[in-house]
Write a structure and sequence with these properties.
Two copies of one chain form a homodimer.
Chain A lengths: L6 H9 L7 H21 L11 H36 L6 H42 L5 H26 L5 H33 L1
């Protein structure tokens, strides 16, 4: 489990020619860091008299940011594992026509599975971006820059995950699946880009 | 040393109300991940016959990306430490006029020191963005998405570091320092934004 390992071991292996971890796991980790920053803003607001009016919303925010952080931390691992599934399918024998057909079927199934991991990472990034807006709006103003960093990293991680969705889609021969997933990604990217612009602006306004 | 510790311990402490690590350390780590991805592209290109023509440039790229990764990994730690310097200055006594003047002087010096850490993070992020362009242009095309992720995370990390520069600048009473540093940051952000747009486009083109 990478998450249980040392940071330097992760970045060292990322830098190596090992096929995993790669950009997918990197984007999940960047988004987990963003989620942690939303939690930090919430934790710096909990129990403060100045923010008495928003305590219920802050508790909800913290619950949501910690839940999505956990999911993203799991996705760091899942992205490295799905590479194995694809690798096994590509190594299947292809001597007879029957073998070729079976291999093609397995590769297509593995590609769809491999698509859905960065797809879910992108979905979770959008969740983090939504939560960072709440953090910037009602959280401790002394930590507003952390809400700003959260939205910036979450949006970049969503765009990064999109690249990893795209790689798999280019090899999938199910046009309906391809068009549905790519349209989903475009929607996620458009929403997270708006949130980035909005929350970054609010952050600078509150910094004065 | 956070880098020598487990990833979950870093994200857990980031999520807590502890004042450090915060957004500055988070942006340095995101940029170190981006640098590692440039190294990955370089490592997947080294020694490949198909890329024989660019082996010298790839070796230079790898050397540069590993050097900037090491700097960014050090900056994760430095950002958490500079908070301590600021905290000590703020806690200085301010009963007499003399104490007040001494404290103000120490706070101003600490704020300048605290400004320069995220400022250097932003400078290093731009370096990573520049290197990711080379990775996307001449690196193994099978890893082009990793060059794309690198530029996206590096650009977001630069914008994140800028927020942390801004926080400190708002309390510094040396207009020349403030205007010089902010103009430097605007230049870094404008350059990294152009690189992001360019490299993301190249990545999609090469993914097909």
């Amino acid at each position: 489990m990478y998450l249980e390992g040392r940071i330097v071991d992760f970045t060292d292996k990322l830098a190596s020619k090992s096929p995993e971890p790669g950009g997918g796991a990197a984007s999940a980790l960047a988004a987990a860091i963003a989620a942690a920053l939303v939690s930090m803003v919430a934790n710096l607001t909990v129990g403060k008299e100045k923010y008495a009016d928003v305590q219920d919303r802050i508790s909800e925010l913290l619950e949501a940011s910690e839940a999505v952080r956990k999911k993203l931390e799991e996705l760091v691992q899942k992205d490295t594992e799905v590479y194995g599934v694809l690798s096994v399918a590509f190594k299947m024998p292809r001597e007879t026509d029957e073998q070729k057909a079976e291999r093609a079927k397995a590769v297509q199934a593995a590609l769809k599975e491999a698509t859905m991991v960065p797809y879910e990472i992108a979905e979770r990034c959008l969740e983090v971006a939504v939560l960072s807006e709440t953090a910037a709006d009602i959280g401790n103003v002394g930590a507003v820059s952390d809400a700003g960093v959260a939205v910036l990293l979450a949006e970049a991680a969503a765009r990064s995950a999109a690249l990893n969705v795209k790689i798999n889609l280019t090899s999938i021969d199910d046009p309906e699946f391809v068009s549905e997933k790519w349209s989903g990604i475009k929607d996620i990217l458009s929403k997270s880009a708006s949130l980035k612009e909005k929350v970054e602006k609010v952050t600078y306004e509150k910094l004065g």
